[in-house]
Amino acid sequence: MASAMSSDFVIRLAAEAVYTVLQASLPLMLSALAVGLVVSIFQATTHIQEQTLAFAPKIIAVLVALLVFGQWILHSLVDFTYRLLSNLHQYIG
To answer: Is the pTM higher than 0.90?
Structure first.
């Protein structure tokens, strides 16, 4: 990491933070997307246009994905936070 708070350093740190957030949220978003697509196809084939029908399966899918990927998501967030805080003395000084 850089020893001074240059604009390149701040941009690189912000990009790493955004990448970490995207990486952590991707499994949850993909599961909601997949279930939403399946429910939409079901609704289109059966001509059922109830909006609340898609809501409950998406919530359940996100909760299942959180149970499956929760440990990995937590590990990646804690790893980023640890790297950020362990180098904090370099950012200030």
So the answer is: no
